[in-house]
Hints:
The complex is a heterodimer. Chain A is of the alpha+beta class. Chain A has a domain at about 115-283: Rod shape-determining protein MreC, domain 2 (Thrombin, subunit H). Chain A has 4 helices and 12 strands, in the order H-H-H-H-E-E-E-E-E-E-E-E-E-E-E-E. In chain A, a hairpin with a 4-residue loop joins strand 3 and strand 4. Chain A starts with a helix and ends in a 16-residue tail after the last strand. By secondary structure, chain B is mainly α. Chain B contains 7 helices and no strands. In chain B, helix 1 runs antiparallel to helix 3, helix 3 packs across helix 7 (about 135-160) and helix 4 (about 55-70) packs across helix 5 (about 75-95). Chain B is globular. At the A-B interface, helix 1, helix 2 and helix 3 of A face helix 1, helix 4 and helix 5 of B.
Amino acid sequence: xxxxxxxxxxxxxxxxxxxxxxxxxxxxxxxxxxxxxxxxxxxxxxxxxxxxxxxxxxxxxxxxxxxxxxxxxxxxxxxxxxxxxxxxxxxxxxxxxxxxxxxxxxxxxxxxxxxxxxxxxxxxxxxxxxxxxxxxxxxxxxxxxxxxxxxxxxxxxxxxxxxxxxxxxxxxxxxxxxxxxxxxxxxxxxxxxxxxxxxxxxxxxxxxxxxxxxxxxxxxxxxxxxxxxxxxxxxxxxxxxxxxxxxxxxxxxxxxxxxxxxxxxxxxxxxxxxxxxxxxxxx
Amino acid sequence: xxxxxxxxxxxxxxxxxxxxxxxxxxxxxxxxxxxxxxxxxxxxxxxxxxxxxxxxxxxxxxxxxxxxxxxxxxxxxxxxxxxxxxxxxxxxxxxxxxxxxxxxxxxxxxxxxxxxxxxxxxxxxxxxxxxxxxxxxxxxxxxxxxxxxxxxxxxxxxxxx
Lengths: 283, 161
Protein backbone atom coordinates (compact mmCIF):
# COMPACT_ATOMS: atom_id res chain seq x y z
CA UNK A 1 0.00 0.00 0.00
CA UNK A 2 2.73 2.42 0.89
CA UNK A 3 4.71 1.62 -2.21
CA UNK A 4 1.58 2.41 -4.20
CA UNK A 5 1.25 5.77 -2.49
CA UNK A 6 4.31 7.07 -4.26
CA UNK A 7 3.02 5.91 -7.61
CA UNK A 8 -0.28 7.71 -7.01
CA UNK A 9 1.59 10.93 -6.44
CA UNK A 10 3.60 10.41 -9.59
CA UNK A 11 0.44 9.75 -11.53
CA UNK A 12 -1.18 12.86 -10.14
CA UNK A 13 1.89 14.86 -11.07
CA UNK A 14 1.86 13.56 -14.66
CA UNK A 15 -1.83 14.25 -14.98
CA UNK A 16 -1.57 17.77 -13.55
CA UNK A 17 1.22 18.62 -15.99
CA UNK A 18 -0.82 17.18 -18.86
CA UNK A 19 -3.87 19.19 -17.81
CA UNK A 20 -1.85 22.40 -17.65
CA UNK A 21 -0.56 21.78 -21.16
CA UNK A 22 -4.11 21.07 -22.36
CA UNK A 23 -5.47 24.24 -20.77
CA UNK A 24 -2.69 26.32 -22.23
CA UNK A 25 -3.10 24.90 -25.72
CA UNK A 26 -6.89 25.11 -25.56
CA UNK A 27 -6.83 28.74 -24.52
CA UNK A 28 -4.08 30.09 -26.75
CA UNK A 29 -4.20 27.84 -29.78
CA UNK A 30 -6.72 26.01 -31.89
CA UNK A 31 -4.98 22.68 -32.30
CA UNK A 32 -7.42 20.99 -29.97
CA UNK A 33 -10.56 21.87 -31.94
CA UNK A 34 -10.53 18.52 -33.75
CA UNK A 35 -9.95 16.56 -30.55
CA UNK A 36 -12.70 18.47 -28.78
CA UNK A 37 -15.10 17.85 -31.66
CA UNK A 38 -14.29 14.14 -31.63
CA UNK A 39 -14.85 13.78 -27.89
CA UNK A 40 -17.93 15.96 -28.09
CA UNK A 41 -19.37 13.77 -30.81
CA UNK A 42 -18.85 10.76 -28.54
CA UNK A 43 -20.98 12.32 -25.81
CA UNK A 44 -23.68 13.59 -28.19
CA UNK A 45 -26.04 10.71 -27.26
CA UNK A 46 -26.02 11.99 -23.67
CA UNK A 47 -27.10 15.42 -24.84
CA UNK A 48 -29.89 13.98 -26.96
CA UNK A 49 -31.05 11.79 -24.08
CA UNK A 50 -31.10 14.77 -21.75
CA UNK A 51 -33.32 16.57 -24.23
CA UNK A 52 -35.96 13.84 -24.36
CA UNK A 53 -38.07 15.05 -21.40
CA UNK A 54 -38.37 18.54 -22.85
CA UNK A 55 -39.18 17.15 -26.29
CA UNK A 56 -41.79 14.90 -24.77
CA UNK A 57 -43.51 17.74 -22.93
CA UNK A 58 -43.45 20.06 -25.91
CA UNK A 59 -44.81 17.26 -28.08
CA UNK A 60 -47.55 16.71 -25.50
CA UNK A 61 -48.30 20.40 -25.42
CA UNK A 62 -48.60 20.47 -29.19
CA UNK A 63 -50.74 17.37 -29.43
CA UNK A 64 -53.20 18.38 -26.75
CA UNK A 65 -54.48 21.50 -28.48
CA UNK A 66 -58.11 21.88 -29.31
CA UNK A 67 -59.35 22.20 -32.88
CA UNK A 68 -60.61 25.74 -32.42
CA UNK A 69 -57.29 26.80 -30.99
CA UNK A 70 -55.48 25.36 -33.98
CA UNK A 71 -57.86 27.13 -36.36
CA UNK A 72 -57.32 30.38 -34.58
CA UNK A 73 -53.60 29.98 -34.71
CA UNK A 74 -53.73 29.01 -38.35
CA UNK A 75 -55.74 32.10 -39.17
CA UNK A 76 -53.32 34.30 -37.27
CA UNK A 77 -50.34 32.78 -39.04
CA UNK A 78 -51.97 33.17 -42.46
CA UNK A 79 -52.62 36.83 -41.77
CA UNK A 80 -49.09 37.32 -40.58
CA UNK A 81 -47.74 35.51 -43.61
CA UNK A 82 -49.78 37.75 -45.94
CA UNK A 83 -48.53 40.89 -44.25
CA UNK A 84 -44.95 39.71 -44.45
CA UNK A 85 -45.36 38.76 -48.10
CA UNK A 86 -46.61 42.21 -49.01
CA UNK A 87 -43.69 43.72 -47.16
CA UNK A 88 -41.38 41.37 -49.03
CA UNK A 89 -42.61 42.70 -52.40
CA UNK A 90 -41.35 46.10 -51.47
CA UNK A 91 -38.14 44.56 -50.22
CA UNK A 92 -37.52 42.77 -53.50
CA UNK A 93 -37.96 46.00 -55.41
CA UNK A 94 -35.55 47.71 -53.03
CA UNK A 95 -33.08 44.91 -53.42
CA UNK A 96 -33.01 45.10 -57.19
CA UNK A 97 -32.70 48.85 -57.00
CA UNK A 98 -29.87 48.49 -54.52
CA UNK A 99 -28.12 46.01 -56.78
CA UNK A 100 -28.48 48.37 -59.74
CA UNK A 101 -27.05 51.27 -57.77
CA UNK A 102 -24.20 49.11 -56.56
CA UNK A 103 -23.48 48.15 -60.15
CA UNK A 104 -23.39 51.83 -61.07
CA UNK A 105 -20.95 52.46 -58.26
CA UNK A 106 -18.90 49.46 -59.27
CA UNK A 107 -18.92 47.82 -55.87
CA UNK A 108 -19.52 44.13 -55.45
CA UNK A 109 -23.05 42.96 -55.19
CA UNK A 110 -24.14 41.19 -52.05
CA UNK A 111 -26.47 38.29 -52.57
CA UNK A 112 -28.79 36.70 -50.07
CA UNK A 113 -27.21 34.52 -47.41
CA UNK A 114 -27.94 30.84 -47.02
CA UNK A 115 -29.81 30.01 -43.84
CA UNK A 116 -30.60 26.92 -41.82
CA UNK A 117 -33.07 26.45 -39.01
CA UNK A 118 -31.66 24.82 -35.88
CA UNK A 119 -33.32 23.79 -32.68
CA UNK A 120 -31.93 24.39 -29.22
CA UNK A 121 -31.52 21.15 -27.37
CA UNK A 122 -30.30 21.90 -23.91
CA UNK A 123 -29.50 24.92 -21.88
CA UNK A 124 -28.02 23.64 -18.67
CA UNK A 125 -24.29 23.20 -19.01
CA UNK A 126 -21.83 25.85 -17.97
CA UNK A 127 -22.95 28.16 -15.15
CA UNK A 128 -20.40 30.83 -15.97
CA UNK A 129 -21.08 31.19 -19.67
CA UNK A 130 -24.18 32.11 -21.63
CA UNK A 131 -24.12 29.25 -24.07
CA UNK A 132 -26.48 26.74 -25.54
CA UNK A 133 -26.33 23.73 -27.82
CA UNK A 134 -28.11 23.43 -31.15
CA UNK A 135 -29.02 20.33 -33.10
CA UNK A 136 -26.99 21.07 -36.24
CA UNK A 137 -23.30 20.31 -36.54
CA UNK A 138 -20.46 19.92 -38.98
CA UNK A 139 -22.49 17.39 -40.97
CA UNK A 140 -24.90 20.22 -41.83
CA UNK A 141 -22.00 22.46 -42.77
CA UNK A 142 -21.91 24.50 -39.58
CA UNK A 143 -18.53 26.06 -38.87
CA UNK A 144 -16.88 27.86 -35.99
CA UNK A 145 -17.52 31.59 -35.93
CA UNK A 146 -20.81 31.35 -37.74
CA UNK A 147 -23.51 33.87 -36.91
CA UNK A 148 -26.67 32.70 -35.18
CA UNK A 149 -29.84 34.81 -35.34
CA UNK A 150 -33.45 34.50 -34.32
CA UNK A 151 -36.51 36.25 -35.70
CA UNK A 152 -35.63 39.47 -33.89
CA UNK A 153 -31.88 39.89 -34.10
CA UNK A 154 -28.43 38.46 -33.60
CA UNK A 155 -28.22 35.75 -30.94
CA UNK A 156 -24.53 34.90 -30.97
CA UNK A 157 -21.94 32.84 -32.74
CA UNK A 158 -20.91 29.22 -32.99
CA UNK A 159 -17.86 28.44 -30.85
CA UNK A 160 -17.52 24.66 -31.07
CA UNK A 161 -18.75 22.29 -33.74
CA UNK A 162 -19.42 18.61 -33.18
CA UNK A 163 -20.73 16.17 -35.77
CA UNK A 164 -24.45 16.57 -35.01
CA UNK A 165 -24.49 19.43 -32.56
CA UNK A 166 -22.69 22.67 -31.97
CA UNK A 167 -22.24 25.10 -29.14
CA UNK A 168 -23.31 28.73 -29.45
CA UNK A 169 -22.07 31.67 -27.40
CA UNK A 170 -24.64 34.41 -26.82
CA UNK A 171 -23.84 38.06 -27.49
CA UNK A 172 -24.51 38.92 -23.85
CA UNK A 173 -21.81 36.58 -22.51
CA UNK A 174 -19.14 38.47 -20.62
CA UNK A 175 -16.42 37.38 -23.02
CA UNK A 176 -18.28 38.40 -26.16
CA UNK A 177 -18.16 41.57 -28.18
CA UNK A 178 -19.81 42.55 -31.44
CA UNK A 179 -19.08 45.57 -33.62
CA UNK A 180 -22.23 47.66 -34.03
CA UNK A 181 -23.44 50.98 -35.33
CA UNK A 182 -26.40 53.10 -34.39
CA UNK A 183 -29.02 52.83 -37.11
CA UNK A 184 -29.99 56.51 -36.78
CA UNK A 185 -26.62 58.13 -37.34
CA UNK A 186 -24.03 55.40 -38.02
CA UNK A 187 -22.06 55.98 -34.84
CA UNK A 188 -19.83 52.95 -34.48
CA UNK A 189 -19.02 51.10 -31.30
CA UNK A 190 -18.55 47.66 -29.80
CA UNK A 191 -21.41 46.07 -27.88
CA UNK A 192 -19.87 43.90 -25.21
CA UNK A 193 -21.75 41.30 -23.23
CA UNK A 194 -22.33 41.96 -19.56
CA UNK A 195 -22.73 38.38 -18.37
CA UNK A 196 -26.41 39.03 -17.69
CA UNK A 197 -28.55 37.47 -20.35
CA UNK A 198 -30.47 40.62 -21.25
CA UNK A 199 -27.82 43.30 -21.11
CA UNK A 200 -25.09 44.61 -23.36
CA UNK A 201 -22.96 47.66 -22.87
CA UNK A 202 -21.18 49.90 -25.34
CA UNK A 203 -17.47 50.20 -24.80
CA UNK A 204 -15.40 53.36 -24.95
CA UNK A 205 -18.06 55.79 -26.11
CA UNK A 206 -17.23 59.40 -25.26
CA UNK A 207 -19.72 61.63 -23.44
CA UNK A 208 -20.25 63.82 -26.49
CA UNK A 209 -21.26 61.01 -28.82
CA UNK A 210 -24.82 61.24 -30.03
CA UNK A 211 -26.50 58.13 -28.67
CA UNK A 212 -29.95 58.29 -27.12
CA UNK A 213 -32.20 55.90 -25.26
CA UNK A 214 -34.28 53.98 -27.79
CA UNK A 215 -31.68 53.97 -30.54
CA UNK A 216 -31.36 50.70 -32.43
CA UNK A 217 -27.98 49.08 -32.78
CA UNK A 218 -27.30 47.07 -35.91
CA UNK A 219 -24.29 44.97 -36.74
CA UNK A 220 -21.69 46.97 -38.63
CA UNK A 221 -19.88 44.01 -40.13
CA UNK A 222 -16.56 45.61 -39.30
CA UNK A 223 -15.01 42.56 -37.66
CA UNK A 224 -15.65 40.50 -40.83
CA UNK A 225 -17.40 38.04 -38.57
CA UNK A 226 -21.03 39.10 -38.40
CA UNK A 227 -23.07 39.98 -41.47
CA UNK A 228 -23.99 43.64 -41.92
CA UNK A 229 -27.32 45.11 -40.94
CA UNK A 230 -28.87 42.70 -38.48
CA UNK A 231 -30.42 44.26 -35.38
CA UNK A 232 -28.40 43.67 -32.23
CA UNK A 233 -29.95 45.73 -29.46
CA UNK A 234 -31.84 48.77 -28.30
CA UNK A 235 -30.27 51.38 -26.03
CA UNK A 236 -31.93 51.32 -22.63
CA UNK A 237 -29.78 53.65 -20.60
CA UNK A 238 -27.30 56.44 -21.24
CA UNK A 239 -25.48 57.84 -18.26
CA UNK A 240 -22.84 60.56 -18.21
CA UNK A 241 -20.62 60.40 -15.18
CA UNK A 242 -18.25 63.38 -15.02
CA UNK A 243 -15.78 61.31 -13.05
CA UNK A 244 -15.42 58.74 -15.81
CA UNK A 245 -13.71 58.98 -19.15
CA UNK A 246 -16.51 57.34 -21.08
CA UNK A 247 -20.29 57.34 -20.97
CA UNK A 248 -22.07 54.35 -19.49
CA UNK A 249 -24.40 53.03 -22.17
CA UNK A 250 -26.51 49.94 -21.69
CA UNK A 251 -28.51 48.10 -24.35
CA UNK A 252 -30.98 45.27 -24.42
CA UNK A 253 -30.51 42.60 -27.09
CA UNK A 254 -33.35 42.54 -29.60
CA UNK A 255 -33.07 38.75 -29.91
CA UNK A 256 -35.16 37.01 -27.28
CA UNK A 257 -32.23 35.33 -25.64
CA UNK A 258 -33.98 33.91 -22.62
CA UNK A 259 -36.87 32.46 -24.59
CA UNK A 260 -35.10 30.89 -27.53
CA UNK A 261 -36.60 27.76 -29.00
CA UNK A 262 -35.18 27.70 -32.48
CA UNK A 263 -32.56 29.81 -34.19
CA UNK A 264 -31.25 30.42 -37.69
CA UNK A 265 -27.69 29.78 -38.78
CA UNK A 266 -26.47 32.27 -41.38
CA UNK A 267 -23.85 31.64 -44.02
CA UNK A 268 -22.40 34.85 -45.33
CA UNK A 269 -20.44 35.06 -48.54
CA UNK A 270 -17.11 35.89 -46.99
CA UNK A 271 -17.37 33.30 -44.23
CA UNK A 272 -15.10 30.48 -45.21
CA UNK A 273 -14.86 27.61 -42.75
CA UNK A 274 -11.62 26.88 -40.99
CA UNK A 275 -10.25 30.37 -41.10
CA UNK A 276 -12.55 32.05 -38.63
CA UNK A 277 -11.69 31.93 -34.94
CA UNK A 278 -14.12 31.65 -32.03
CA UNK A 279 -14.32 34.67 -29.76
CA UNK A 280 -14.54 38.30 -30.66
CA UNK A 281 -12.74 38.59 -27.39
CA UNK A 282 -11.42 42.03 -28.19
CA UNK A 283 -14.88 43.25 -27.23
CA UNK B 1 -12.53 -14.03 -14.39
CA UNK B 2 -11.63 -11.93 -17.38
CA UNK B 3 -15.27 -11.80 -18.29
CA UNK B 4 -16.34 -10.38 -14.92
CA UNK B 5 -13.50 -7.85 -15.18
CA UNK B 6 -14.72 -6.52 -18.51
CA UNK B 7 -18.30 -6.62 -17.33
CA UNK B 8 -17.31 -4.57 -14.30
CA UNK B 9 -15.61 -2.03 -16.54
CA UNK B 10 -18.74 -1.76 -18.62
CA UNK B 11 -20.80 -1.12 -15.49
CA UNK B 12 -18.39 1.59 -14.39
CA UNK B 13 -18.55 3.28 -17.81
CA UNK B 14 -22.34 3.10 -17.89
CA UNK B 15 -22.57 4.60 -14.41
CA UNK B 16 -20.37 7.50 -15.48
CA UNK B 17 -22.48 8.04 -18.59
CA UNK B 18 -25.62 8.05 -16.46
CA UNK B 19 -24.03 10.57 -14.10
CA UNK B 20 -23.13 12.82 -17.05
CA UNK B 21 -26.69 12.55 -18.29
CA UNK B 22 -27.98 13.64 -14.89
CA UNK B 23 -25.50 16.52 -14.92
CA UNK B 24 -26.88 18.01 -18.12
CA UNK B 25 -30.54 17.18 -17.55
CA UNK B 26 -32.39 20.52 -17.44
CA UNK B 27 -34.20 20.91 -14.12
CA UNK B 28 -36.14 23.71 -12.43
CA UNK B 29 -33.87 26.46 -11.19
CA UNK B 30 -34.45 25.78 -7.49
CA UNK B 31 -33.32 22.18 -7.80
CA UNK B 32 -30.58 23.16 -10.21
CA UNK B 33 -28.88 25.36 -7.64
CA UNK B 34 -28.48 22.43 -5.28
CA UNK B 35 -27.68 19.84 -7.92
CA UNK B 36 -24.37 18.18 -7.02
CA UNK B 37 -21.85 17.16 -9.62
CA UNK B 38 -23.05 13.58 -10.08
CA UNK B 39 -19.97 12.56 -12.00
CA UNK B 40 -17.77 13.61 -9.09
CA UNK B 41 -19.89 11.60 -6.65
CA UNK B 42 -19.80 8.51 -8.87
CA UNK B 43 -16.06 8.91 -9.25
CA UNK B 44 -15.67 9.10 -5.48
CA UNK B 45 -17.67 5.92 -5.09
CA UNK B 46 -15.71 3.89 -7.62
CA UNK B 47 -12.35 5.04 -6.31
CA UNK B 48 -13.46 4.13 -2.81
CA UNK B 49 -14.86 0.75 -3.84
CA UNK B 50 -12.29 -0.41 -6.39
CA UNK B 51 -9.21 1.79 -5.94
CA UNK B 52 -7.03 -0.58 -7.91
CA UNK B 53 -9.18 -0.14 -11.01
CA UNK B 54 -10.46 3.41 -10.89
CA UNK B 55 -7.82 5.94 -9.98
CA UNK B 56 -6.12 9.14 -11.00
CA UNK B 57 -5.95 8.34 -14.71
CA UNK B 58 -9.57 7.21 -14.93
CA UNK B 59 -10.59 10.38 -13.10
CA UNK B 60 -8.63 12.41 -15.59
CA UNK B 61 -10.25 10.77 -18.62
CA UNK B 62 -13.72 11.17 -17.15
CA UNK B 63 -12.87 14.81 -16.45
CA UNK B 64 -11.97 15.33 -20.10
CA UNK B 65 -15.41 14.14 -21.15
CA UNK B 66 -17.07 16.39 -18.59
CA UNK B 67 -15.03 19.30 -19.96
CA UNK B 68 -16.35 18.64 -23.43
CA UNK B 69 -19.89 18.14 -22.24
CA UNK B 70 -20.00 21.35 -20.25
CA UNK B 71 -17.92 23.37 -22.71
CA UNK B 72 -15.35 24.44 -20.15
CA UNK B 73 -11.68 24.93 -20.90
CA UNK B 74 -10.02 21.61 -21.65
CA UNK B 75 -8.31 20.26 -18.56
CA UNK B 76 -10.20 22.00 -15.77
CA UNK B 77 -12.46 19.11 -14.89
CA UNK B 78 -9.76 16.64 -15.90
CA UNK B 79 -7.27 18.04 -13.45
CA UNK B 80 -9.72 18.53 -10.61
CA UNK B 81 -11.26 15.07 -11.02
CA UNK B 82 -7.79 13.54 -10.96
CA UNK B 83 -7.29 15.40 -7.70
CA UNK B 84 -10.52 13.94 -6.29
CA UNK B 85 -9.38 10.46 -7.26
CA UNK B 86 -6.02 11.08 -5.62
CA UNK B 87 -7.48 12.40 -2.37
CA UNK B 88 -9.92 9.52 -2.10
CA UNK B 89 -7.23 7.02 -2.93
CA UNK B 90 -5.18 8.39 -0.06
CA UNK B 91 -8.04 8.10 2.40
CA UNK B 92 -10.27 5.26 1.22
CA UNK B 93 -9.22 2.94 4.09
CA UNK B 94 -10.62 5.33 6.63
CA UNK B 95 -13.58 6.44 4.51
CA UNK B 96 -14.85 2.90 4.16
CA UNK B 97 -15.01 2.51 7.93
CA UNK B 98 -16.74 5.79 8.62
CA UNK B 99 -20.47 5.91 9.35
CA UNK B 100 -22.43 7.23 6.36
CA UNK B 101 -22.94 10.78 7.65
CA UNK B 102 -19.26 11.17 8.43
CA UNK B 103 -18.44 9.86 4.97
CA UNK B 104 -20.79 12.49 3.54
CA UNK B 105 -18.99 15.29 5.31
CA UNK B 106 -15.56 14.07 4.24
CA UNK B 107 -16.65 13.69 0.65
CA UNK B 108 -18.27 17.10 0.64
CA UNK B 109 -14.94 18.51 1.78
CA UNK B 110 -13.10 16.74 -1.04
CA UNK B 111 -15.65 17.99 -3.58
CA UNK B 112 -15.35 21.46 -2.07
CA UNK B 113 -11.61 21.35 -2.72
CA UNK B 114 -12.34 20.28 -6.29
CA UNK B 115 -14.81 23.14 -6.80
CA UNK B 116 -12.37 25.64 -5.35
CA UNK B 117 -9.59 24.50 -7.67
CA UNK B 118 -11.99 24.53 -10.63
CA UNK B 119 -13.04 28.07 -9.75
CA UNK B 120 -9.43 29.25 -9.52
CA UNK B 121 -8.53 27.64 -12.84
CA UNK B 122 -11.59 29.08 -14.50
CA UNK B 123 -10.94 32.56 -13.19
CA UNK B 124 -7.64 32.53 -15.08
CA UNK B 125 -9.39 32.68 -18.44
CA UNK B 126 -12.83 34.16 -17.91
CA UNK B 127 -14.55 36.43 -15.42
CA UNK B 128 -16.29 34.39 -12.73
CA UNK B 129 -18.53 35.41 -9.90
CA UNK B 130 -18.31 33.09 -6.92
CA UNK B 131 -21.45 34.01 -5.06
CA UNK B 132 -22.70 31.56 -2.46
CA UNK B 133 -24.88 29.95 -5.13
CA UNK B 134 -21.74 28.42 -6.57
CA UNK B 135 -21.25 26.48 -3.32
CA UNK B 136 -24.86 25.27 -3.02
CA UNK B 137 -24.14 21.94 -4.79
CA UNK B 138 -22.03 21.04 -1.75
CA UNK B 139 -25.22 20.81 0.26
CA UNK B 140 -26.61 18.59 -2.47
CA UNK B 141 -23.53 16.38 -2.36
CA UNK B 142 -23.84 16.12 1.41
CA UNK B 143 -27.46 15.06 1.17
CA UNK B 144 -27.22 12.78 -1.85
CA UNK B 145 -24.04 10.91 -1.05
CA UNK B 146 -25.74 8.19 1.05
CA UNK B 147 -28.16 7.48 -1.80
CA UNK B 148 -25.45 7.43 -4.43
CA UNK B 149 -23.48 5.10 -2.21
CA UNK B 150 -26.34 2.68 -1.64
CA UNK B 151 -27.41 2.63 -5.28
CA UNK B 152 -23.94 2.12 -6.66
CA UNK B 153 -23.13 -0.51 -4.03
CA UNK B 154 -26.16 -2.52 -5.10
CA UNK B 155 -25.20 -2.08 -8.73
CA UNK B 156 -21.67 -3.24 -8.01
CA UNK B 157 -22.84 -6.27 -6.01
CA UNK B 158 -25.22 -7.34 -8.69
CA UNK B 159 -23.06 -6.82 -11.78
CA UNK B 160 -19.46 -6.96 -10.69
CA UNK B 161 -19.48 -10.19 -8.74
